[in-house]
């Protein structure tokens, strides 16, 4: 189990269905904003660490705050497949925290 104080997981080790993920990554690019039917903003961002890259789905205002080049720590995230692509999400009670640039 990956608890809050566990060392971060490498992107290469992320598999669909994993929960409570702690991952540190750099933001490579921010995707365009799409709106859900109920008015939420969703951005798909390309992020990477030294082992690989992955897409992360970022919802609402936090998506407008992150920039390419930011170093981000995701806590309590989870991974699943979206349109054939392995994608990271912020879980319930999870957070994205900028820790550097």
Automatic annotation (TrEMBL):
The taxonomic lineage of its organism, from the top, reads:
Eukaryota, Metazoa, Chordata, Craniata, Vertebrata
Taxonomically, which superkingdom?
Answer: Eukaryota
GO molecular-function annotation terms? DNA binding
Question: Could you identify this protein by its name?
Answer: SOSS complex subunit B2
The protein's matches in InterPro entries, at most eight in alphabetical order, are given as: NA-bd_OB-fold, OB_Ssb-like, SOSS-B
Query: Listed GO cellular component terms?
Result: chromosome; SOSS complex
Residue span(s) of domain Single-stranded DNA binding protein Ssb-like OB fold: 17-96
Question: What is the species of this protein?
Answer: Camelus dromedarius (Dromedary)
Q: Can you tell me which family this protein belongs to?
A: Belongs to the SOSS-B family. SOSS-B2 subfamily.
Pfam families for this protein: OB_Ssb-like
Localization recorded for this chain is: Nucleus
Q: What does this protein do?
A: Component of the SOSS complex, a multiprotein complex that functions downstream of the MRN complex to promote DNA repair and G2/M checkpoint. In the SOSS complex, acts as a sensor of single-stranded DNA that binds to single-stranded DNA, in particular to polypyrimidines. The SOSS complex associates with DNA lesions and influences diverse endpoints in the cellular DNA damage response including cell-cycle checkpoint activation, recombinational repair and maintenance of genomic stability.
GO biological process terms on file = double-strand break repair via homologous recombination; mitotic G2/M transition checkpoint; response to ionizing radiation
User: Which UniProt keyword terms apply here?
Assistant: DNA damage, DNA repair, DNA-binding, Nucleus
């Amino acid at each position: 189990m990956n608890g809050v104080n566990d060392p971060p997981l490498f992107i290469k080790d992320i598999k669909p269905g994993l929960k409570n993920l702690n991952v540190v990554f750099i933001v490579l690019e921010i995707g365009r904003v799409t709106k859900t039917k109920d008015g939420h903003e969703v951005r798909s961002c390309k992020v990477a660490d030294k082992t690989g890259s992955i897409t992360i789905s970022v919802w609402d205002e936090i998506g407008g705050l992150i920039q390419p080049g930011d170093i981000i720590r995701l806590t309590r995230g989870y991974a699943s497949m979206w349109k054939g692509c392995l994608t990271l999400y912020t879980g319930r009670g999870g957070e994205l925290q900028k820790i550097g640039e």
